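Dear colleague,

Following up on yesterday's call, I've attached the two folding results inline so they're easy to grep. Please treat them as preliminary; we haven't cross-checked anything against experimental data yet. The first protein's sequence and structure tokens come first.
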Amino acid sequence: MGVRKMKNLLKVAGISVLAAALGACSAEDGAGPDQAARVQGAASPEAAAVQTPPPGSYRLSCNNLSVNDDVLYASCRKLDGGTASARLSNVSGCLGQVMNGGDIGNIDGSLICIPDLPKAAPGTVFPESELTINGWVYGGDEQAIHRHAWNIWAGLTQQAGTVDGQPVRAFETWATPSNMIYRMHNETAPPQRRLDLEPARQLRNVSPQVAATADGQGSGDVSADGDTHIAVSVAYNPPAARHAINNRLFLESTLKQLIKDGYTDIPNFPVNAITIKPVYKVINAANTVNGIYTFPGWPGTPEPAKAFGESDWDACVYVDVTGLGRGGNSIDAGCQGRNADNTFYLNNFIHHPVTAADAEYLAAQLSVKVEAGDYVILVGMHVATREIKRWAWQTFWWSANPDAPYPPSSQAIAAARPAVLDEAAAHYAMSVAYSMVSPAQPITGGENVGQPVISYNPHLEAGFDPGVFQISRPINGTDRYDYGVQTNCMTCHGLAAYDPTVDYSNDANREKPYATDFYMSLDDAVFDGKLKLDFAWSILGVMELDK
């Protein structure tokens, strides 16, 4: 951020000229948000104290704003229609985050300081320079890639504050499409919802059997392997959300106008943009027996490759929802029966209790019975950062034995986990896709040769059969990859584009064309006549059609 822009922001927030100078110097010297906040905190109270309410999205749903003794006070709307008296301490320190792309948000009546990404693990650099990451990619430095990806996970799973007395992690404070679309049309906005879930959109194009067992619809009955239903969300961190809102990227009218004006790409997201797709399971009375919830445990990539949805895993994980505990370290292959080794507890998962406001909303969204006091557990998450031109892709899923996870993860990847991860966050496995093939090819003009780079999420792509994919290009001319367990996030998301000839009122067309893994140049002929969406399938997925 330039000195002039930073000074203007600080002036708006009521910070003295001395604090502005300190903040500007720290930012121009390359200091991260945390360091900038520390520098500001070192100034005298008269110099660093915020005098007036600072900028932030909270202003769209809060009023009666005031600042006193470095505490921001406001009356903020809640999801149930009421208001709450909210406060945020150390607001001058939070300005360090806001200056570097963060935000102050209203999460269901609570004020939360929302950085672009908390720097939780020592040595975390975000955004890392494209030159540095490309050095890892083209130099084959997998250890550096793994460390960086885990540091991103540590940041987005770090506790950011509390809502209704419950801790919230950073990723839970990020804006969801429904909130962003509302802000594209209105001067105000509702409070951000922690659990803005829906059935997985990509299941529109899978076999009816896989869709029926995974889309969350129906009576809530479970299979022999446990609960195979999933619910997903999409969220953007503050820089990504601000970019999408300012450019009105979720409106079809915007995309049509860009094509009319001769654009071949949407305005590219900033380098500190992050988009995520969390995957949850809802624990309720219908799928819990004597306090035990059962869901399929991932047994690893099948050989030979095949469509491998949760109902095919033939392995179980048992969750005792009645208490806390250390938990076991294995899945129950064949679902033979529960024991100490395959039984876990809610504290072994990133999880949240369902509030009354959540229950009403989730029941309508997912067509299942959800009540206050139920739980949701996080079983997976796609994470993409715009640090490099083709984005950096990492995906996470819950693992019974996170020290020795099944493919597409590995013990080598697990060994790179930072020590700062708490018990729940450390229980996830990871796979990465920082290139399409290995050795990595240039972003344009490369060849579809080498070894595949396989990276997929078991809860999202493993059930895909060849019929899901509209484009297939054998690597090396002969090596075909046709199943969801042979996919690469970068290849598939690279195809995200708006085609003005397609009827997007048919929701199935919003998830096409999909692909598995192969090299594709950024100037590939497949994009002729289309508007590339900067690798963001989520834009098509939530796009508001012209009326």
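Below is the second protein, in the same order (sequence, then structure):
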Amino acid sequence: MMKARSLYNSVRAASYEPRATSEPALAARGPMARSSITLSKKKLSPLVAIVGRPNVGKSTLFNHLTGSRRAIVGDEPGITRDRLYGEVEWLGHEFRVVDTGGIVPDDKDFIPAEIFRQAKVAFEEAAAIVMVVDARTELAGPDRELARLLARTGKPLFLAVNKMDSDKQDGLLDEFHVLGMRNMFPISAEHGRGVDDLLDAILKVLPAKPKTTAEDAEFAEKNGDEDTPTSEEPHEIRVAIIGHPNVGKSTLLNQLTGIDRAIVSPIAGTTRDSIDEVIQYKGRKIRFVDTAGIRRKGKTHLMAEKLSVVMARKNIEDADIVLFMVDATEGASGLDANIAGYAHESGRSVIIVVNKWDLVASGEKRAVSQSKTARIQDAKRPQDRALYEERLRYGLKFLAYAPVLFISAHTGKGTEKILPLIEKVAAERRKRITTGEMNRFLKTVDFDRASVPVSKRVKIKYMTQAGVAPPTFVLFTDRAVKLHFSYERFLENQIRAAFGFMGSPIWIKNRARD
């Protein structure tokens, strides 16, 4: 637990790589998707793929190159599964790097086969490939098979012999000449030894993109460079997809982005690293982050699972909006309430997404109800959406402000409503009300209707909005006392009735004014 907490405290903003949705994928999503989602015109830097069999140090090298702790690292083999992208800067040049899962080419099991499929996508995108091997273990069949596979790509190859922490181990290099790669480098990804030589060699084969300086940007603007933005771009909307394991988060990410970005399987806990993908919707960037499923504390045993939950919670805190997913066939459990509570308490805007509704609507499955009365109602109206939402809101009372969508991530039904709703909730989150409007609003509120003990009542002299994202209001009152919960809830409801703020929590603070 201490290791997980240490990582949580030390993780900072990771290097995320914007990637546009592909044209064929958009075509598959229909005319409505094509009309609203556009491709990014940003010229991407060249890409370097990091590959190798499990547990050789690929993620450690990725973290060292990107200067982040984005990839989860541990002693357990097979932690990384999906592709992770990051940015590298070296000697004034920039390029991208992608971390892949451990490859075992001949393993036919579902997860290893999907990891291999994701890695092959990285091969095709990459301008150069770094194969990582472990100097402390003997070469195995998967190493030789992978080397032969990479040689057939025809791309520049580099062999990084990892875990060579001192010059005394240089004799271990001889064994790896059998792989047939001329560009071989002894490195220690953990300590950074030899990594600079590897980067120097990579730059020689890449059409490296020089880092843009302030002077370059000014020159490009004066000369009308169309690739350089002349006005400030709108705020990027960060959307985290959260929920318990196997609720359909990765399927929804793939559906929204139009590509098979994340591995999807019926095995709970398939996603471990947080996977992100960027699309442009009506000229604005939306970054979706698929997080690992959050389990109960007693259910997480492997360190990789514990760190996945830590990273998921960090991604919630970094997000603007959270898509909180609920399995329609299970309903909102105590665990779901805890997960949603993380988003609510951190001030994130929330959209509740009820997934797998097609199974309930078709009668294939029936929603699980907790009470006997609810089960009787379900028997009479099993596909009643309004009844289901009423029961859902009862279990998630603190999310009364969050809109609810019923979708099927698998078929795509209902997902077309998500992007317009994200756009609306993002605008509501940053809405600002003038002090004059707030004080005129105060005069219309009948505070005698608030069910608050007389001893806890305060007189509000005036009120102002102090911040946005989330909307934060400051009351100047006649007494320096903490607002009674009922009083605060009453005022929040009145603010929402007058000004909206759909999907966003409202924070209210009070100060005494003499």
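For the second protein, one point worth flagging: The mean pLDDT is 79.

Best wishes,
A.L.
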